[in-house]
Amino acid sequence: MATSFASALSEGQPAQLDLGEEAVACLVVGFTGADVMLAPQAPLPPDALAPGFVTYLLIEAGGSLQALKAQIKPGYAEGELIATLLDPFRLGQRRTFSRAPLVLPAHLRPAGTEGAPKTTFTRDISAGGLRVAKQSSYIEADLHQVVIGLVQANREIRATAETVRVTDTDVSLSFVDIEPADRLLLAQLTFAYHRRRAGS
């Protein structure tokens, strides 16, 4: 049965890993689905990363402490961990992926059309989608071909995205077709953003 909590899991939120005889303070760096990226504030005992070791991730939600069953493994960056939640519920947030307010060049073109793509920029990105500035040249469509420019990496991410919300200033899109490596790259970019914020 799903349980909802008053507050959501969020980047920068304090948490603890309950390792039985001790607890290790952590900060939430980000999340993708059931995986929560953590920055531990102290070293973990070596057996904490043993395959199959089950622990509890302790998070305050809605004024009460929630214990979420998890398995942990090393993260993508040195000193980080991934806690894979084993409990079958979400923490009340609508988002499945962490997002970061990164400004990147982007091009949109309604799917199935041959016209020139319309240039804009992202207001935020995640492994699940993006929000872009709505330009005067924006053409409404249910599906868009999206190209996100990663200038510093000299790389582009190409995807098909569904229009989720349109306001006077923004267009929010959810990816419906994206290469797994590109989704992972977007997740890593959001984690890097929140990692820098947690370190400052």
Summed up:
The chain is mainly β and 200 residues long. The chain contains 1 helix and 13 strands, in the order βββββββββββββα.
Descriptive report:
With 200 residues, the protein is mainly beta. The chain folds into 2 domains: 14-85, Thrombin, subunit H (Beta Barrel); 99-199, Beta Barrel (Thrombin, subunit H), CATH 2.40.10.220. Helices cover 10% and strands 48% of the residues. The protein has one helix at 180-199; strands at residues 14-18, 23-32, 35-40, 54-61, 64-74, 81-85, 99-100, 105-110, 118-126, 129-133, 143-150, 155-166, 170-178. The chain has a 6-stranded antiparallel β-barrel with strand order 1-2-3-6-5-4. It starts with 13 loop residues before the first strand and ends with a helix. Residues 1-7 have low confidence and may be disordered. One of its GO terms (molecular function) is cyclic-di-GMP binding.
Number of strands: 13
Estimated structural class: mainly beta
Supply the CATH superfamily name of the largest domain: predicted glycosyltransferase like domains
Largest sheet strand order: 1-2-3-6-5-4
Q: What percent of the residues sit in helical stretches (DSSP H or I)?
A: 10-25%
Keywords:
200 residues, mainly beta, Thrombin, subunit H, six-stranded antiparallel barrel, six-stranded antiparallel β-barrel, 1 helix, 10% helix, 48% strand, elongated, disordered N terminus
Set out the fold topology:
Layout: E1 14-18, E2 23-32, E3 35-40, E4 54-61, E5 64-74, E6 81-85, E7 99-100, E8 105-110, E9 118-126, E10 129-133, E11 143-150, E12 155-166, E13 170-178, H1 180-199
Antiparallel strand pairs: 1-2, 1-4, 2-3, 3-6, 4-5, 5-6, 7-9, 8-9, 8-11, 9-10, 10-13, 11-12, 12-13
